[in-house]
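re: ur msg from earlier - yeah i can do the S-adenosyl-L-homocysteine complex, just paste it... oh wait u already did. ok heres what im feeding in:
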Amino acid sequence: MTSLYGLTRDELAGELVGEPRYRADQLWRGLWAEGRTLAEVTTIPRAVRERLAEAHPAALTPVEEVVSDRGGTRKWLFGLGDGATIETVLMHYDDRVTVCVSSQAGCAMGCTFCATGQAGFTRHLTLGEVLEQVMVARREARPARLSNVVFMGMGEPLANYAVTVGAVRRLAGDVGLSARHLTVSTVGVAPAIERLAAEGLPVTLALSLHAANDAARDELVPLNRRYPLERLFAACTAWVERTGRRLSLEWALIEGVNDTDAALGELVEFAAPLRAHVNLIPLNPTPGYLVRGSAPERVTAFRDGLVARGVNATVRNTRGRSIAAACGQLAQVSRGRRVAIRGR
Ligand code: SAH
Ligand code: SF4
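and the outut:
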């Protein structure tokens, strides 16, 4: 069954046959622009709402909620209709409120350091399942206003290409989020980066680079064997030239692996010609990859080294480390308690 959020405007109107035509506008506006639940769109007669709710039940069932940063970070484990689980994280910052959404249940890319990669692939999410994560988070964020959406939860968004692009379009169009505040993170599916560049979507692209020599990246990110750095660099060049947008490079610092001076030099060579911005984050340890994130002093020194060589770099705040914020980690530890969240 399709989530209500997976329907196009025409499909939704089609569900309201026999009702006055303005009902479709009321419902569409209520759900998307106003961010109400179906039950809250009280301009629609109750019987109609009940019929819709039966035909299109919520796609996400909250299984577990973990709160940290004194409520500033909330992470949910959601069950899907077929029993698969995904994670969604809501983060309040001083200047923005961001939701991190999953694009797949699990992931087929097998990055060695990633809890989701260690668990393997279950399936692609539907458009409705991706959008419902955003709409639930938007309601939960109140009274703060959800401003940013990042595709950095479970899964590889560019492997679920049509859904990712469809979601970005809907969020920019119907939800009215500024497209500058939408970020798609990819492990480096080179042809899909080029395809995305041609879509004309003003979305920010983040590439999870983590290593800038092929031998090291082959180990961390198996997809590198298919699209090695030279191929990836060509795709990034196409992205920058075609979109004129800044590229972000994600670099999870791993002690003794990619935090050395040699690794720094390689990163500068990759990032500088692209004028890319580097986001540094110390690796979050996972059970399947027993190395450590770099110590805070090394993280700072690495950043300073980049900046000294003309590369923009910031250290990302590791939100919710205490609640296992890196993708896939809550799914690993969940006890499967069911929880209730607001607005459902
Ligand atoms: N598949 C996409 C998006 C989801 S992963 C991608 O790989 O980009 C989101 C981010 O979390 C990626 O940058 C990924 O490299 C990073 N990540 C995964 N496991 C991590 C860990 N244990 N510690 C720190 N970052 C991690
Ligand atoms: Fe998949 Fe991204 Fe995890 Fe790699 S880091 S396994 S691409 S979710």
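cool cool. Residues 127-141 form the longest helix (15 residues). ping me if u need the other ligands too
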